[in-house]
Design a protein that fits this description.
The protein is an alpha/beta fold and 346 residues long. It has a single domain, classed as Bacterial extracellular solute-binding protein, family 7 (D-Maltodextrin-Binding Protein, domain 2, 3-Layer(aba) Sandwich), CATH 3.40.190.170. Helix content is 47%, strand content 18%. Strands 1, 2, 3, 4, 7, 8 and 9 form a 7-stranded mixed beta sheet that branches. Helix 3 links the parallel strand 1 and strand 2. Helix 8 packs antiparallel against helix 14. The N and C termini lie far apart (80 Å). The N terminus is likely disordered. Bound molecules: (2S)-2-hydroxybutanedioic acid (LMR).
């Protein structure tokens, strides 16, 4: 056979081989087969900022355990809690660049990509846990998860995980009337809506990463903060805050976000098991949220270091009225679709 003919035949053969199996990731994904084993697992790095004892910390550990069981060790979820790997200031960037594959931020922190995620901060928007669940199960929630803004940043939104209602605390005096907030400085998570909330109460605010908040309260950089019972308790704010009022003025909930490119390359058979594990952990997260927050409220009341003021309905109504300017200023940003839509789920 002529040399040129032999070379041509070999080249065509090589091309066909490449087309059939050139891209390892895609090939395994399409075939449903997997090159991963318990000895050489696919590693999903999951970073979050709360403690291992928190609602989110427990649900994340459970997810890792279930994934390992369901995939017989072929997929390993490495959970990095307590801002060990990335904190509030860099976890989103780390996700977009693929340095971490999964995060579960408090959704208001997504304001960096899309201001609508601040819906959780709209004062007294959610009535109770059932209302929150109705939202999580709604098309409104699905639309947010599937938004173009996320996809454009290589992010895929999967599910909501619950935490709870936020309450105010501080170091100066009990917070009962609107006047009590005047001149105090509070730690805020992120975004203009929270800034406006404190402004409406004649208070100041500073955006401080969750991992740095204990120190900021201890050192007096800020006088107070707002968070769920469970975050307050598992961060041991009892040690650095004196007065707590159960205002329940806003929400703090999470969404599970993954790096889209990474996620879509997980072989189909393994992905189905990982998704099943996520569904079970989500059920757990929703159950845990109520229970753990109640336990934490008891811990705060029994701490002996914090004076807890239990708000009356009239006092909450006064707080709600004082926070109305937040709706005037941000109603359009959050969108009528979301605000009216959430109200309609009551
Ligand atoms: C906060 O910054 O207060 C929360 O986002 C922390 C968390 O993730 O629960």
């Amino acid at each position: 056979m002529k040399k040129w003919l032999l070379v041509s035949i070999i080249s065509v053969f090589a091309l066909v081989l490449t087309a059939c199996g050139g891209n390892d990731d895609k090939a395994s994904s399409a075939s449903g087969g997997s090159e991963y084993t318990a000895e050489k697992p696919l590693v999903i790095k999951f970073s979050h900022v709360t403690s291992i004892e928190s609602v989110k910390g427990k649900a994340a550990e459970q997810f890792a355990k279930l994934v390992s069981e369901k995939t017989e060790g072929k997929v390993k979820v490495e959970v990095y809690p307590s801002s060990q790997l990335y904190g509030d200031n860099d976890e989103l960037d780390a996700l977009m660049s693929g340095n971490v594959h999964m995060i579960a931020p408090s959704v208001t922190k997504m304001v960096k990509l899309d201001p609508r995620w601040q819906f959780v901060d709209m004062p007294f928007l959610f009535e109770n846990q059932e209302h929150v669940h109705a939202f999580f199960n709604s098309d409104l929630a699905k639309d947010l998860m599937n938004s173009d803004q996320l996809a454009a940043n290589d992010i895929k939104g999967l599910v909501f995980w619950e935490n709870g209602f936020k309450h105010f605390s501080n170091n100066k005096h009990p917070l009962v009337t609107i006047e009590d907030y005047k001149g105090l400085k509070f730690r805020a998570q992120a975004g203009k809506v929270l800034e406006a909330q404190f402004h409406a109460l004649n208070a100041g605010s500073a955006t401080i990463a969750f991992g740095e908040t204990y120190a900021a309260l201890q050192q007096g950089t800020v006088d107070g903060q707002e968070n769920t019972y469970n975050n307050f308790d598992t961060q041991k704010y009892q040690e650095v805050q004196k007065y707590f009022s159960n205002t329940a003025h806003g929400r703090l909930d999470y969404a599970i976000f993954v790096n889209k490119t990474f996620w879509e390359k997980i072989p189909a058979d393994l992905l189905a098991q990982v998704e099943a594990a996520l569904e079970e952990s989500t059920t757990l997260a929703w159950e845990l949220a109520g229970e753990e927050n109640e336990k934490s409220f008891e811990n705060i009341k029994n701490s002996g270091t914090v004076e807890v003021y239990e708000m009356s309905q009239e006092e909450r109504d006064a707080l709600k009225a004082a926070l109305q300017p937040v709706y005037d200023e941000f109603g359009e940003v959050i969108t009528a679709e979301l605000i009216d839509g959430i109200n309609a789920l009551k």
